[in-house]
Write a structure and sequence with these properties.
This protein is mainly β and 71 residues long. It contains no helices and 5 strands.
């Protein structure tokens, strides 16, 4: 899977395993959802990711906490 479109889905959260096994992912579209925070750790295996769209969400926090939620 190279492209994943999850835009316009009213997502409130992102599971930490959302893209864990998608190492070939190049494009991830998450715009127009209800996301408030994003932990960059979920992108740890997306080494080819070039296009990440988080626009038009309610983001107030972007952080990297690691595998057990500890910053």
């Amino acid at each position: 899977l190279r492209e994943l479109y999850l835009d316009n889905n009213c997502l409130h959260t992102l599971d930490s395993n959302l893209i864990a096994n998608l190492a070939s992912l190049v494009k991830l579209r998450l715009e127009n959802n209800l996301l408030k925070k994003v932990d960059l750790y979920i992108f740890r295996n997306a080494i080819l990711l070039e296009d990440l769209d988080l626009s038009n969400n309610n983001l107030f926090k972007v952080e990297e906490t690691g595998p057990i939620g500890q910053g």
